[in-house]
Each structure stands twice: as structure tokens, then as C-alpha cells.
Amino acid sequence: MFPSVRMRRLRAAAGLRSMVRETALRAEDLVLPLFVDERHDEARPIACLPGVEAHPLRSLPRLAKDLESEGVRSVMVFGIPRGKDAEGSGAWQEDGIAQSAVRAIKSSADLNVIADVCLCEYTDHGHCGIVRDGEVDNDLTLPRIAGTASSLAAAGADIVAPSGMMDGMVAAIRGSLDDEGHHMVPVMSYAVKYDSAFYGPFREAACSSPSFGDRSGYQMDVANRREAMREASLDIGEGADMVMVKPAMSSLDIISDCRGAFDVPIAAYQVSGEYAMVMSGAAAGLFDADRAMLESLTAIKRSGADIITSYYTRDLVAKL
Ligand code: PBG
User: What mean pLDDT do residues 220-224 have?
Assistant: First the structure.
């Protein structure tokens, strides 16, 4: 007799299901983005990101200790400066908001601190680089982001994560880090960053919407899959230690392709709009927030991501 196939045998009891479960999220996989706002003295809720706050510098030591004791292992720092200018010069100051935030966190808690490296929060026009003749000039931008990365490493960042999608940014940053003695600071490149509507709430929070045009001249076209492989392999060739794909939920094919093609750790970013979408659905009573988040984040990991940045990290690690 042909044995009867019953897929349901291994689903019949919780103990069996957990025994055969292929993917499990760990606190070590998760990164919490932190907005640090130089303009205010008190933590302020971010209206478009339910449950997320922008923090003043002075509350970081306490916050970092709390996060550590709750089980959060890694944070990604975004600075919101008091002033902006055409060059984004606030990005590379030794006492800039992101540099100060990195120092405050590192000196009070044992967390992996990843510093996002981009100019868009610091430029008055909101673009990710230096604008010349109405365009972001790639090669004028490179030394600025390289200097920004080195200043964040000097402040104590454990990892630098360039997110500006400039060609050659990883090589420029690696060169600058090495010149400044930061040989051991890894680069996590946002190698595959799509020109996405889902960054809307982040730009609201960081006041970094471009004042003219959009980012389609440097971020990737959502329609392209093969191009993502070129982006990631170029960045790895330039010395990226890890590559990131974002947004995550609409790029599971790309995460899976990267996992198959490259042996570096693959990171994925569940971005602000993806988080807000799930949270708004839950607030509207469509589904349970925890279940929906666990499902989305498990799917991101199942597709091949080793590391996941999510605004839900703090909530989730408390439940793991
Ligand atoms: C900076 C940066 C952005 C995000 C991460 N780094 C904004 C953008 O490209 O406009 C988006 C993160 C999110 O939406 O959660 N360049």
C-alpha cells in the first residue's frame, strides 16, 4: 500500500509544530531605528509612526539602558539636526547630533550601534547629496559621506550604514575609515534601496522630503530585479561587509536572490510606511498587531534576511 501522505500529521500539536518550525526570529536579528532630535528637550511622539518617538539627546543614556535590559541588541541611529544647509554640513560635525547620540548610547549601554550615513536629514533641500545644476552630484557627494562615516566611527559607531545610493559610496567610505584608523568598523551598505512611497512617514519624522524633484535619479526603480544584483555585487566588490535591501515587505524576491547569490550577511529594512501600514490596519481592527508583525517579520527572515531593521523591534523582543 502506498503510504498515505498527511501533511497535517506534523501540524496536529503545538509541540510538533515548534519542532519542525524552519524559521525563528531572535532578538539578535532585530535592529531598532532611533530618531534623535536636536531641536527638542522632551521625547515627542511621531504622529505618522504610531508608537514611535523622537528622542532628545539627554534621554539617550536612560533609554539605551532600558533597551538593553529589555533585550534589544542593536539600534540604528538617525539624527534630526537643529539647522540645515545646502551641503548638509551638520552630518559630519564631531559634535553633530548623530555623533553625540552614538557617544551617549555607547557610553551607557552594551548595544550594537549602527549609524545611518546620509545627508538628506541635514540638507536644506532634502536630497541625499550635494546639488549642482538641479541634480545630486555623485562625486562631489562622496567625500562628504566618507567624512560623515568616519566621524560616526570616531564617535564610537560599531557599524556604518550608507543609505544615499551614490555610486562608489562604499569604496569612498572604506577608504576614509581605513585612513582614519577605523579598519575594524564594518560597512552595512543599503545596496538595494528602491525609490519607494513607503519612506513617507520617515521623511515626515526626519523632515527630509526633497524640496524639489524626487529621488528617482539615485534610488532604484521598483520594476528592476536584475539591477539589484548588480548593485549588491558592486557594493560587495567595494568592500561592503553586509548588504541591505529595502523596503523589505515588497522586496522578498530580492532578499531571496541576494541570499542565494552572496555569502555576506543580508539585512532588510521594514521601512516606516510598511510599519505604519500594519499598525494602522491593526488600529482599524482589521487584525492583531502582534500577529501581523510576527508574520511579516518571519516572512522577511524566511526569504533570506539575517538582520531585520524594524520599528517594532522593542515590542517584539519583549515577546520573544
Ligand atoms: C536616508 C534614509 C531614509 C530611510 C532610511 N535612510 C529615507 C529616504 O531615503 O528618503 C527610510 C527609512 C524608513 O522609511 O523607515 N536616506
Answer: 98
- Residue-wise pLDDT tens digits, 16-26: 999 999 999 99
**C-alpha span between 71 and 314 (Å, rounded):** 8
User: 65, 193, 301, 319: which is the annotated catalytic residue?
Assistant: 193
The tally of CA atoms less than 13 A away on the side-chain side of residue 35 is: 27
CA 202 / ligand 1 centre spacing (Å): 6
SS3 content of the chain, % helix, strand, coil (to 5): 40, 20, 40
| Active-site residue flag, 193 | yes
Site to probe by mutation for ligand 1, drawn from 163, 219, 246 as the one with most ligand atoms within 8 Å of Cβ, is 163
* 116, 202, 208: residue to mutate for ligand 1 pocket, most atoms within 8 A of CB: 202
Does this model's pTM top 0.90?
Answer: yes
Mean pLDDT of 57-82: 98
Can 301 be counted among the known catalytic residues?
Answer: no
Mean pLDDT of the chain: 96
Contact 36, 80 (CB under 8 A): yes
The closest residue, in CA terms, to atom 6 on ligand 1 is 163
Q: Domains of the chain (ranges plus CATH)?
A: 24-319 (3.20.20.70)
